[in-house]
Specification:
By secondary structure, this protein is α/β, with parallel strands linked by helices. Helix content is about 45%, strand content about 15%. Helix 7 packs across helix 8 and helix 11 packs parallel to helix 12. The protein has 3 domains: about 210 residues, Rossmann fold (3-Layer(aba) Sandwich), CATH 3.40.50; about 90 residues, Orthogonal Bundle (DNA polymerase, domain 1), CATH 1.10.150; about 35 residues, no CATH class.
């Protein structure tokens, strides 16, 4: 997600590629798990008319407020929920919003979060060290940097920030505590690293690591992906845009695993896992933003999009003749008609 150079308009990353990956169609039902400024959501609603529906989820209450304005013209077709996507299952069940034609995750920070002060996401502003997506969460970045043992800080910065200077940074943080603000922390990291390497600020990786830790981003992503596959309708699309290697690695491995049959450990003489493929990879390689997009929106440069489609898996809870009828309807894409949603919801509930 991003804004233009004036910071006044939300520019969704890889918009056309995302719409193509979701295969948005009239009358479809979609879930945007990371609503942000509502750019992708708006495009989904525009292209799913007439009859399209969208469930938009975001942990940040400010994002929900912004999306209410952006999506005001579609208020009868959109449901906005201020919650974390780790609760995707309970949200979809609560609002009777399943199965769906597509689920989108646009991970990382929105430019709205980066450009607005007061949240501690960026060292471009001198703010308190918060970094929580939802102010109602418990632990803040200040709690972590001011109370964690040095070894734990080093591990966190190395693991979540992929920072080679993690021990030096952790050592200086502990020596300089208490850390009171974003600029205070950025200066400490810059001093610990002692020199700039590459194109990014020395504190970038440390801030990423703290934000990931505060919001349990990687743990929540793994949980949410497992939930998402359960609520995708047959031939529904799962689309994920990630912005760093830790996220992309989780998404890649999840999709590859669910696209395989047997997942027994190598060397197992006979399959005992009983695993059946539930996804089919649409593209085996990631989709990257074009050169033109990167020039127009530099924050899109690290984006990677992966897409897979839900496979039909026989349900043992239904009689054979019922399954034959249902499968015929599925292959004809008839499940996409609202009249069959209830029948499919029963299948999902029994699975």
């Amino acid at each position: 997600m991003s804004l233009n150079k004036h910071g006044s308009y939300h520019i969704p990353v890889m918009l056309e590629e995302t719409m193509a990956a979701l295969a948005v169609q009239p009358g479809g039902r979609y879930v945007d798990c990371t609503l942000g400024g509502g750019g992708h959501a708006q495009a989904i609603l525009e292209r799913s008319c007439p009859g399209g529906q969208l469930l938009g989820i975001d942990a940040d209450p400010e994002a929900i407020k912004a999306a209410e304005k952006t999506l005001g013209a579609y208020r009868h077709s959109v449901l906005l929920v201020n919650d974390n996507f780790v609760n995707l299952q309970s949200i979809c069940i609560k609002y009777d919003f399943f199965p769906v034609h597509g689920i989108l995750f646009d991970l990382g920070l929105s430019s709205m979060q980066l450009n607005r002060g007061g949240r501690g996401f960026s060292f471009q502003h001198d703010d308190s060290l918060d970094m929580r997506f939802n102010p109602g969460q418990g632990v803040t970045a200040a709690d972590i940097v001011n109370t964690s043992p040095e070894a734990e800080l080093a591990r966190l910065i190395r693991t979540y920030g992929e920072e080679g200077y993690s021990r030096q940074i952790a050592r200086l943080i502990v020596r300089e505590r208490p850390i009171t603000s974003t600029l205070h922390l950025a200066r400490i990291v810059e001093k610990a690293v002692s020199r700039r390497t590459g194109k990014i600020h020395p504190a970038t990786k440390t801030f990423q690591a703290l934000r990931i830790a505060v919001n349990l981003e990687l743990e929540n992503l793994e949980i949410a992906l497992k939930q998402a596959i359960e609520f995708l309708g047959f031939e529904g699309r799962l689309v994920v845009i990630s912005y760093h290697s830790l996220e992309d690695r989780i998404v890649k491995r999840f999709m590859q695993r669910e696209a395989r049959g047997c997942i027994c450990p190598p060397g197992t003489p006979v399959c005992v896992c009983g695993h059946k493929p539930r996804l089919k990879l649409i593209r085996r390689h990631v989709i990257m933003p074009s050169g033109d997009e990167v020039r127009a929106n530099p924050r899109s440069r690290s984006a990677k999009l992966r897409v897979a489609t839900r496979l039909t898996v026989p349900n043992d809870c239904l009689a054979t003749d019922e399954m034959e009828v249902l499968w015929a309807e599925i292959k004809a894409r008839a499940w996409r008609k609202p009249v069959l949603l209830r029948k499919l919801q029963m299948v999902f509930a029994m699975a």
